[in-house]
Queue: 2 jobs
Job 1
Amino acid sequence: MANLQIRISGINLVHPLLNASGILGSNKEGVNLLALMGFSGIVTKTFTKKPRKGYDPPIIIPLEYGFLNAVGLANPGIDKVKEVIEAAHEHGLPVIVSIGGQNPDDFAYLAGKAEEAGADVLELNMSCPHTPGYGIDITTTDKLLKEIASSVKSVVKIPVWAKLGYSKRLIKEAEILLSEGIDALVLINTLPGMVIDVYVGKPILSNKYGGLSGPAIHPVAVYSVYRVYQEFRCDIIGVGGVHDWKTLVEMLMAGARAVQIGTAIISFNDKLLVKRILEDLLKYMEERGFKDINELVGYALD
Amino acid sequence: MVKKLKNTLQYNAISQRLIPRYKYTSLKLIDKEKLSQTLYLMRFKVLENIGKPFPPQFIMLWVPGYEAIPMSVALFDEDNNALSIVVKPVGPTTNYLVSLEPGIFMGMYGYLGKPCIPHGKKYLLIGGGSGIAPIMHYAQYISNHNESGIIDILYGCWKYEEIGKIPLILQNYCSTIKTVCFSDHCDYQGTLIDALIKTDLKLYDIIIIAGPPGLLENALKIVKMDEDLLARVFLVVESMVKCGVGFCGECIIKGTNKLLCVDGPCFPAKELLYVI
Ligand SMILES: Cc1cc2nc3c(=O)[nH]c(=O)nc-3n(C[C@H](O)[C@H](O)[C@H](O)COP(=O)(O)OP(=O)(O)OC[C@H]3O[C@@H](n4cnc5c(N)ncnc54)[C@H](O)[C@@H]3O)c2cc1C
Ligand SMILES: Cc1cc2nc3c(=O)[nH]c(=O)nc-3n(C[C@H](O)[C@H](O)[C@H](O)COP(=O)(O)O)c2cc1C
Ligand code: FES
């Protein structure tokens, strides 16, 4: 059987499939569900300094081509992250704690707390498109990006991933983060979007606009991974519309070493999704003569 | 190489399309009827074809200007793609909802939750308060799909004024309907649990109960002693539902690995023994 193990930013994963931040991952019951689905590590919901209730429903709209969501970073606050980490560790899985702050000091504080609570990796959410004061709002300048990355790197020893959305500044942002010692990039977050009910005559989400995920953004994600890998040959975790062996292989060939899955978990509600994707991946690798998943990483680049 | 490529292409064919199993659609309110002192029946035209619901599936109903709230499908008219819900106004969104008049538009996504249609010949369906909504859907579905099925219904409330027209609607879909309340006008006096104790539950292949947590908890206490009976009991559970599609974790059934919005809202009673 072909090798599916990968090593990314110094962390070993038995296979390349992780859940995406925001799907379950905010309490121990949710982590148990993710672990039972067979992911090789658990990515938590983005944790903030204080608990956040998030927006009122509707917080999600199913679309033919994905989802539009505006949850508003609902989470129980960083003081509750320990129980989430412990739940994942009970399943023997590494935990990637996603954190979201409003300034470099917040990020440094959250990073310290998460490491102390036992996180194996940090994922800096620099890209949530629908929560004012967080995500894309705090990465608007090179200076801020640099300060967030350096303040986090100066307080923790564990690997730090940074999650970006697609923008015209992607390559520049990646360059800044990597030069500040960020260990891997997670590409991409949802893209901003709005859906209007034409009979009601109003945007549907309570927040009016939200983040688009799923098949609609898959080519954007593949492009982003490809471009950043082409430029920097760095460790990348691809995310956006991965739902089967083919979308997974595309991400790997573009340069991702691991992938995260969000929308597919909630579209299919198929508890065997991970198992099925991995079985299909192995069949594809056998057919195409790949013996090791690492051979696929960046295969599509010249 | 040619052979290999061919295999791969064949394999290609089963690459899945990622289409959610539920959809968003606009709705038009076409009818509203006050059923009792506390319940309203609201009928909507579903403006897009989003498939058909199976009991006890629910929708997230978006009431513009207010919230999206979970509502059980109570009746479904396949020919007209129209669905009815039964609303008990309890807070801002439900109070505003029942104040709306036909002609107004809103939205929904669905159908959510897992269809759960246990097979049998003789059904006892028990509904308390707004829990009557999924029970209506069960009665409609079973009477349409299982012609030889016998359906007895127990419907309970605190006051006689809450019974209203529910028995009138349900009589089209069942063999018998008995009412339960603290007034002499009801068929049984007391609570649904008092009525349950007086009912010979062994007569039924399937017993489905929907209603407030207290009802489910006490019903479980009665049936849990008898393993054979327990295996025939199904509970339609309510909890907080925020996303309805399985990512927010709000509706987890504590002590289990189940999400109400994905794995429920109906569960075999034996799965909830140590939980409720
Ligand atoms: C799967 C499911 C099916 C339901 N079906 C029906 C139905 O057919 N008819 C009906 O009248 N009611 C039904 N409900 C309950 C209904 O969703 C709530 O009464 C409604 O959300 C209250 O909103 P509100 O703004 O009017 O009141 P609020 O002031 O928000 O709340 C009033 C009460 O309703 C409960 N509640 C509030 N929000 C929710 C929520 N999102 N999920 C569950 N409970 C909530 C609160 O705990 C409180 O006790 C169902 C709930 C679920 C989970
Ligand atoms: C409901 C929902 C909630 C999300 N919450 C977060 C979050 O808290 N933090 C974050 O970094 N990304 C969040 N995301 C973005 C996902 O992690 C992911 O980047 C995006 O959905 C694209 O992947 P997908 O197409 O597989 O869903 C969320 C996405 C969805 C659909
Ligand atoms: S309501 Fe969000 S997971 Fe069930």
Job 2
Amino acid sequence: MVDPMRSIKTLAPKVVVDSGQLHWVPHFIDFSQWPTLCKDETRTIPSPQMAHYVAPLRGDAARGRVIAMDPWRGNCVTCHEIPGEEWPGTFGASLHHYKQRRHTDANLYQQIFDVRITAPRAVMPPFGPLGILSDQEIRDLVAYLQSLE
Amino acid sequence: MRILIIMLALFLLPAWADEPHKEYTSAEPFLPHVSGDDHLTGTYRYWKDPKNLDMRLAGSPDQSWKLNWKHLDYPFNKEMHAGHLALDRGLTLFNKLNRSGTFKNCLVMYRFNGPYETSLRGLRTHYPAFRTDLGRVVGLEEVIEHCAKLEGEVLQNGSYDNSAVSIYVASHSLGMPIKIDVSSGPLRESWRRGERLFHQKVGRNNMSCASCHVGRIGQSLRATVVTSPYGDVAHYPVYRDRFGITSLQVRFAQCSLDLGFNALKPGSQAYNDLEVFLTALTNGYPVSVPSERP
């Protein structure tokens, strides 16, 4: 899933037995662009933003599924159960049978774009303002969720 | 009330006045003593006395987390695990580093304001501490790195050898309660910074430490159940099956990657502040090494 051409500057610590050096190895995904807890950090997270969703949806459910599984893009699967995925995360709700929740496309779009607008204490990352997902990618994800019978 | 004070502090303190947009998970009323858990998870009564844990809980997969994994500590866990090997290695390294006696002196000095101390006994329970020679608040592993350097050896903070010496030093404080004083001075400032860092949302996932360690207690994440953040520091450095001997700050680095930001180096100020914060949450709980955790 990870594109080997993308450069990975994010390193994970690796403890090597009987060594006085702490080793660092490439992580499976790069986080360099995101703010850290470092005391000199100047980058910040964007304020809550209203999405400008315009119907019709024009999303592609198959593409949406790929995005949901892609750690560099939606990465939804690290937090949500998604049909057909063996080791999903359980941080957010299961997305099985999501269509049955009968959310409008516009609401779902806002949920993925930036849920802090309606739920200020929400934990889910605001994919729109963070610049992780494009308008079309969010549309594809909405189409995918609306296809989960 | 507490939240109000924090919000006020946010607006009043000049250092933060020009801060750009930051978000915090709402702050819990954390107390600098392990009994503060009563206000958070209410599980303290189950693991309060490490010698008398309720083993019925330990036998139940969906209840065992209430023991804060303390049933994985000695005397319940009598297994030989890699933590014991590290302890042996720590003894060997310590003796080698301390041939002239100066390594130990370096570790124990600046320990109390009172009489000069010469023993390793109780040393673990007093770190992190403010060291006048280093001019800042540092954890035990950073001091080990510093003192080894004075002996001409490299024992990087977080490395196996550093943690091995740290486990050896901690073994002289077995059963002694962690005891750091965050009521005044540099440690108080560090505790307050640590508390804020613990609640600050960062990284690709826009989470804070508290998103998981407060918001998800008792739930399964990454194949293990999140337990109370109180009482955790007593068993560090710890042996973890998948990651080997793990110092507290290497654990921070691993959790940082879960949040989705580049791990900081052990010994960075932010990690030291988090260490002070979490160590204060372990105040009053006895040291237990070598230990094992999932």
